[in-house]
Design a protein that fits this description.
With 327 residues, the chain is mainly beta. The protein is built from two helices and 14 strands. Strand 3 and strand 4 form a beta hairpin.
Length: 327
Amino acid sequence: MKEHRPRRGSMAFSPRKRAKSIVPRIRAWPEISEAKPLGFAGYKAGMTHVVMVDDRRNSPTYGEEIVIPVTVLETPPLRVAGVRAYARTPYGLKIIGEVWAENLDEHLEKRINLPKKTTNINDIDVDKVDHFRLVTYTQPYKITGVPKKAPDIMEQKVGGGNSAFDYVKEKLGEEIRVFEAFEEGAIIDVTSITKGKGFQGPVKRWGVITLNAKHARSSKHRRVGNLGPWNPHHVRPTVPQAGQMGFHQRTEFNKRIIKMGENGEEITPNGGFVHYGVLRGDYVLVSGSVPGSVKRLVRFRYALRPPSKVFEGVNVIYVSTTSKQGR
């Protein structure tokens, strides 16, 4: 009888190599008619749990109190450094206009060379614009949990197409808070860089079964049985081998914003979050876990493919502030 032994590990994310940048890229944006940013960014502080009334209409626990694990993101305001106008061409999106704000933050010079001359935003031909994007950067020096001052730069798409010209003109050089883009109960997609695991073997990296003592030679059993057939005369990329594990960009779909607030101290546990400290500014509680380690940059956008479930509205009763120190 032939044994059924399927391959181990998914090839969907290959090649499994380190991410190019600590700032994750968002390559797809939803279509929203309202003129507002469709994404935001924050820093991961840790996890806790909340007690809320289940508002899922078809849930077995509908109307009852349930416990949900949440990830806490500290979201200091983003500052708009510039505006980019994109036009849709047969060869994809093309930048047809770019305007930078005056009097930019001095910390921004640690990341890029700031333009010496600024153009007028009124020179953009609005009729040719498909949509606008805001060139934003974080302000980690406004929070205490992230030990750096150099900002992270990223683009945020603005909804409304070319009708958002007045909005982006108003926001050029100004700050944007998370409350301007999202509200409690919104369905979002979260993107971040996962924890780095370094160089790992095929057992941990791909989940292959270890060889038993009878088949292993010289006690080497944490490896694959063989690297493939004689023909073709090369090792195929489908063979699970050792290499880099972790520090990959990953996106988790259809998370939900459970709670938002302006004073992070009200949800900070006793003794502060482990390896992070105390939150003092704006914060967002996202349902479930989020890729990445503590202090890592996390980007989120409106969901590309939101679920068909009917949610009636978030009703948080209790947010746990017990110590996360393990004692």
